[in-house]
Automatic annotation (TrEMBL), chain A:
It holds the Pfam family BOP1NT. GO terms for biological process: maturation of 5.8S rRNA from tricistronic rRNA transcript (SSU-rRNA, 5.8S rRNA, LSU-rRNA); maturation of LSU-rRNA from tricistronic rRNA transcript (SSU-rRNA, 5.8S rRNA, LSU-rRNA). Coiled coil: none annotated. Component of the PeBoW complex, composed of BOP1, PES1 and WDR12. Within the PeBoW complex BOP1 interacts directly with PES1 and WDR12. The PeBoW complex also associates with the 66S pre-ribosome. Gene3D superfamilies: YVTN repeat-like/Quinoprotein amine dehydrogenase. WD repeats lie at residues 297-338, 601-633. Signal peptide: none annotated. InterPro entries: BOP1/Erb1, BOP1_N_dom, WD40/YVTN_repeat-like_dom_sf, WD40_repeat_CS, WD40_repeat_dom_sf, WD40_rpt. This is Ribosome biogenesis protein BOP1. The gene is BOP1. Belongs to the WD repeat BOP1/ERB1 family. It is found in: Nucleus, Nucleolus; Nucleus, Nucleoplasm. One of its GO terms (cellular component) is preribosome, large subunit precursor. Residues 32-290 form the BOP1 N-terminal domain.
Automatic annotation (TrEMBL), chain B:
The gene is WDR12. PROSITE patterns: WD_REPEATS_1, WD_REPEATS_2, WD_REPEATS_REGION. InterPro entries: NLE, WD40/YVTN_repeat-like_dom_sf, WD40_PAC1, WD40_repeat_CS, WD40_repeat_dom_sf, WD40_rpt, WDR12/Ytm1. It is found in: Nucleus, Nucleolus; Nucleus, Nucleoplasm. Keywords: Nucleus, Repeat, Ribosome biogenesis, rRNA processing, WD repeat. Component of the PeBoW complex, composed of BOP1, PES1 and WDR12. Within the PeBoW complex BOP1 interacts directly with PES1 and WDR12. The PeBoW complex also associates with the 66S pre-ribosome. Pfam families: NLE, WD40. HAMAP family: WDR12 (MF_03029). The keyword Transferase does not apply. GO terms for molecular function: ribonucleoprotein complex binding. Component of the PeBoW complex, which is required for maturation of 28S and 5.8S ribosomal RNAs and formation of the 60S ribosome. The lineage of its organism: Eukaryota, Metazoa, Chordata, Craniata, Vertebrata. Belongs to the WD repeat WDR12/YTM1 family. This is Ribosome biogenesis protein WDR12. GO terms for biological process: maturation of 5.8S rRNA from tricistronic rRNA transcript (SSU-rRNA, 5.8S rRNA, LSU-rRNA); maturation of LSU-rRNA from tricistronic rRNA transcript (SSU-rRNA, 5.8S rRNA, LSU-rRNA).
Length: 633, 392
């Protein structure tokens, strides 16, 4: 630290005569810590470190005793103390002040212009003028002509004159006056206090004064239950009115009300419920569909469990609990044939291909030839059945196949398949050779059997029992097999022999199932009044759930050509719906209920037991517990 | 009570009245209108014997003056005979002397007009669906029966000796034969089949001529319908008309076998009938309407008129042979209705003799109406103009 206030000492110490200079350059002196020298002088000789370094005490003593201590600086390179001369100190002072180091330098010398500011008549140089300085530039001319042309053509708009009027604008012009902006718009004024009425009067009419009983009641009530927070009192004059003792209390409660009671505007969305319903086409634009009951087929004496129409649409077969199968002519309602089968008929199915008709009776499945229609077909069907030749090795099969002969053959029986258990449903494959029968049984894996008629073979496709099988169906086009158990529909691939899909129906108990002729959609009726439509491409959950029936559904059916499906239920009604399936995969099926068909009477809490469509016309047949079959057209 | 200006007019010269407007009560019924007309006729011509029953048919409101056309009233058709069959009657055809019926008991029967059973034609192995007279040479007649057993049988019947002989069996249909028709010259037969066997094949229409031999094959097959053919008839000797379940009526050229015109409806056709008098085709279909068509119209599917009063399918229609406005229709609602085509909302008469479905109707030249149905009864009705017509 330099103490500049100290007066300058007279005595001057000159620097040592010998000019010791270190030649190592600007390197850190720590590099020489381990050496006895600290560098080399001009002659190349080592500069040795002083024998003894000054320690702190030496430093302190020096500081106290040496009057020139303040102007002494330590030179690390030579490890010597240098006493600065007066000139050097002066230079340091000047530099500290930000002045020039040179004492003699005058920074404010008078300036002398290099060129005079007066305009002279002669040029500074004697160089002759360039030609371009007096000939107009061609480039400029070209540019100007371009601009002129652009202005003429209107490509460049001359600059608009600046508007001199001041520019104001309405800050709130765009603001919707009804819009709620900011908190101030949300302000809800505090509810006003009720104005005093007659009760509060100091001299109320007598009817406002409480009687003795009322007053007792008032006193016994809780403060919250009281109709009035005070007792009306009558005073002779205003002067006689005493001070209101509850005044502070009342003000306080008022403040509490204002402070604690939340005041908020309730935003209620006004939506018309009609707008939320999707737009459906009107039923009358979706014609044709069955609308009226046209024919009643009478003849059965017990409830008709099952019906099926022939592929040509001329005949109808029905199976009933009166142990008969009847064949009907569709367009007149004539019963053409009655066959006694010796058991309640649970299911009938007309073969989609030839004239074979199939009937399932208790524990047996009968193949019948109704002998209706073309003689040639009838005889060829018989030939097909009799042409069977048994294979050499007889395999053990789950059912026994027996050929009917004699009287039974004349009646139309052709083959009898005796099952080990009661058969509930039979269904044909679309080609007409395979058929499947269902024997619901909760405890065994022998529930579904697939038979091949031409080879008289039977196989059990399932090894495990996955639950009580309700109904089965073949896919109309591809080798898939649908099995409906109590709550799920499983789709099996028959070629790969694996489970393809499992549909969750969300129903308690499935009763019936139908596959769309396109094969990608499926409907399921259930005993809990629901009809579930599945789009197999979409999801394993129902695409639509229809709850139109009041009671349990018994039968569902799709039409083969028209976009129609029908469901029959225990409430005695058949509901026909329009179910359009589009080829476009992006468009979901359109489902519109179009007609409720009534006609069946409810007997023993059973209404319609089965529905089926005419194969070519938009007609629906329904069979009921009232022993009739009805045709709706 | 408000009064209406009315003007009466008629086509019948015998009963014409002066063309002056009358003022009558607005709530006049048919009976009152008839009385007015009868009074007028009496005033003009006092020799008219008794009151002529007239029926208002047409009301046209025209500039305050209601124009009322009146026609002479016929007496209601009275059931005359009831012929009991053993089973449902599927078809009936009558000529001037005999009635031929086909029944579901696999037989056809011949009756006299008085209702006496003359002959039972048994030979089919299945239900007889249609019958037709072919021709008559004195006492010998030829008749045809078509059946569900895919055959048509041609019979020769001698009415004097009451002898019946099966002459030919016509085979060729691949389904039940539901309808047959003979051409006006009584030489050709057209049969119609109901069902198709192989899916790609079409129902065919067979036509046969008189050839010798027991079994005969079709002369020509008319194919084009997609579904069962329900009714067929000859318009004249060159044209065949057929109605089908595929919602079309087709007109065929009998020489070439090609389709000339197609009339497209919206419902399944049950039965058609053609009247040469008014050149209209009447069709009964699987709804409540009897529709009238013009088979000559080139643009196809024009329904000229629909007669609506039935409440069930119309199973049979038949034009009157001698009156161009009248036709009779039978329906599944057990009713036979007599229509005048000039009033399309209400029929002239409802005949409710049947207790079950009416399946067939016919009309003879001698104004005898016939209807048969599922109650096994064939009714004949005497239906003639009133006595004044005959007396005057």
């Amino acid at each position: 630290m330099m103490r500049l206030s100290v007066s300058r000492p007279e005595k001057l110490y000159s620097t040592p005569i010998t000019d010791i200079r270190n030649t190592v350059g600007n390197v850190p002196m720590e590099w020489y810590q381990d050496y006895p020298h600290i560098g080399y002088n001009l002659d190349g000789k080592k500069i040795f470190k002083p024998i003894r370094n000054k320690d702190e005490l030496d430093e302190f003593l020096d500081k106290m005793e040496n009057p020139d201590y303040w102007r002494t600086v330590h030179d690390k390179t030579t490890a010597s103390d240098i006493r600065l001369t007066d000139e050097q100190v002066d230079l340091v002072h000047r530099l500290q002040k930000g002045q020039f180091g040179d004492v003699n330098f005058n920074e404010y010398e008078p300036s002398v212009d290099f060129f005079t500011n007066e305009v002279m008549i002669h040029p500074v140089t004697n160089r002759p003028q360039d030609k371009r300085s007096f000939i107009p530039s061609l480039i400029e001319k070209e540019k100007v002509s371009k601009l002129v042309h652009a202005i003429k053509m209107g490509w460049i708009k001359p600059r608009k004159p600046k508007e001199t009027t001041p520019q104001y604008y309405d800050l709130w012009a765009k603001e919707d006056p009804n819009a709620i902006l900011g908190r101030h718009k949300m302000h809800v004024p505090a509810p006003k206090m009720r104005l005093p009425g007659h009760e509060e009067s100091y001299n109320p009419p007598p009817e406002y004064l409480l009687t003795e009983e009322e007053r007792l009641v008032w006193e016994q009530q809780d403060a919250e239950d009281r109709k009035l927070p005070f007792l009306p009192q009558k005073h002779s004059c205003l002067r006689a009115v005493p001070a209101f003792s509850r005044f502070i209390h009342e003000r306080f409660e008022r403040c509490l009300d204002l402070y604690l009671c939340p005041r908020q505007r309730k935003m209620r969305v006004n939506v018309n419920p009609e707008d939320l319903i999707p737009k459906l086409p009107k039923p009358k634009d979706l014609q044709p569909f069955p609308t009226t009951m046209s024919l009643v087929y009478r003849g059965h004496t017990s409830l008709v469990r099952s019906i099926s129409a022939s592929p040509t649409g001329q005949w109808l077969v029905s199976g009933s609990d009166d142990f008969t199968v009847r064949f009907w002519e569709v367009n007149t309602g004539r019963c053409m044939k009655t066959l006694e089968v010796g058991g309640a008929v649970k299911s009938v199915a007309w073969n989609p291909n030839p004239a074979v008709c199939l009937v399932a009776v208790e524990r047996t499945v009968l193949l019948l030839n109704p002998s209706l229609g073309d003689r040639l077909v009838v005889s060829s069907t018989d030939q097909l059945i009799t042409a069977y030749e048994p294979p050499e090795e007889d395999k053990e099969q789950a059912v026994t196949w027996a050929l009917s002969e004699g009287l039974e053959h004349n009646m139309g029986h052709r083959l009898t398949l005796t099952h080990p258990k009661a058969v509930k449903q039979v269904v044909w494959h679309g080609k007409g050779d395979y058929l499947s029968s269902v024997m619901p049984d909760n405890s065994s894996n022998l529930q579904v059997l697939i038979h091949q008629v031409s080879k008289r073979r039977t196989q059990n496709p399932f090894r495990k029992n996955k639950g009580l099988v309700q109904c089965v169906s073949f896919h109309p086009l591809r080798p898939y097999f649908f099995v409906a158990t109590q709550r799920y529909v499983r789709v099996y691939n028959l070629i790969k022999q694996e489970l393809t899909k499992k549909l969750m129906t969300n129903c308690k108990w499935i009763s019936s199932m139908a596959i769309h002729p396109g094969g990608d959609n499926l409907i399921c009726g259930s005993y809990d009044c629901r009809l579930a439509w599945f789009d197999l491409d979409l999801s394993t959950k129902p695409y639509k759930m229809l709850r139109h029936h009041k009671k349990a559904l018994r039968g569902v059916a799709y039409h083969r050509n028209y976009p129609l499906f029908a469901s029959g239920a225990d409430d005695g009604s058949v509901i026909v719906c329009h179910g359009m399936v589009y080829n476009d995969l992006l468009q979901n099926p359109l489902i519109v209920p179009v007609k409720v068909l009534k006609g069946h009477q409810i007997t023993h809490d059973l209404g319609v037991l089965d529905v089926t469509f005419h194969p070519t016309q938009p007609w629906v047949f329904s069979s009921g517990a009232d022993t009739t079959i009805r045709l709706f057209t | 009570m408000s009064q209406l200006q009315t003007r009466f007019f008629t086509d019948n010269k015998k009963y014409s009245v002066d063309d002056v407007p009358f003022s009558i009560p607005a709530a006049s019924e048919v009976q009152e209108l008839s009385n007015v007309i009868n009074k007028l006729l009496e005033a003009k011509n006092d020799c008219l014997v008794c009151q002529c029953d007239l029926k208002r048919v047409l009301c046209v409101l025209q500039e305050d003056v209601v124009e009322i056309e009146y026609v002479e009233r016929f007496t209601a058709p009275q059931p005359e005979e009831c012929m009991m069959h053993d089973d449902w009657i599927s078809s009936v055809e009558a000529d001037s002397e005999w009635i031929l019926t086909g029944s579901y008991d696999k037989t056809a029967r011949i009756w006299s007009l008085e209702g006496k059973a003359v002959m039972t034609v048994a030979g089919h192995t299945d239900v007889v669906k249609d019958v037709a007279w072919v021709r008559r040479d004195g006492l010998t007649s030829l008749l045809l029966t078509a059946s569900l057993d895919q055959t048509i049988l041609l019979w020769e019947w001698n009415s004097e000796r009451n002898k019946l002989k099966a002459r030919h069996c016509c085979r060729g249909h691949a389904g039940s034969v539901d309808t047959i028709a003979t051409d006006p010259t009584r030489t050709k037969v057209t049969g119609e089949e109901e069902e198709v066997e192989e899916p790609p094949s079409r129902p065919r229409k067979k036509q046969k001529t008189e050839q010798l031999g027991l079994t005969r094959t079709p002369l020509m097959t008319l194919s084009g319908h997609n579904e069962a053919v329900s009714s067929v008839l000859w318009l004249d000797s060159e044209e065949i008309c057929s109605a089908s379940w595929d919602h079309t009526i087709r007109l065929w050229d009998a020489e070439t076998g090609s389709v000339k015109t197609t009339l497209t409806g919206s419902k399944v056709f049950n039965h058609i009938s053609y009247s040469p008098l008014c050149r209209r085709l009447a069709s009964g279909s699987t709804d409540r309407h009897v529709r009238l068509w013009d088979p000559r119209s080139k643009d196809g599917s024009l329904v000229l008129l629909s007669l609506t009063s039935h409440s069930g399918w119309v199973t049979a229609v038949k034009w009157a042979p001698s009156h161009e406005h009248q036709l009779v229709s039978g329906s599944l609602d057990n009713l036979v209705k007599l229509w005048d085509t000039r009033s399309c909302k209400t029929p002239l008469y409802d005949v409710s003799a049947h207790e079950d479905k009416v399946l067939c109707v016919d009309w003879t030249d001698s104004r005898l109406m016939l209807s048969g149905g599922a109650d096994n009864k064939l009714y004949t009705y005497r239906y003639t103009a009133c006595e004044t017509d005959a007396g005057a």
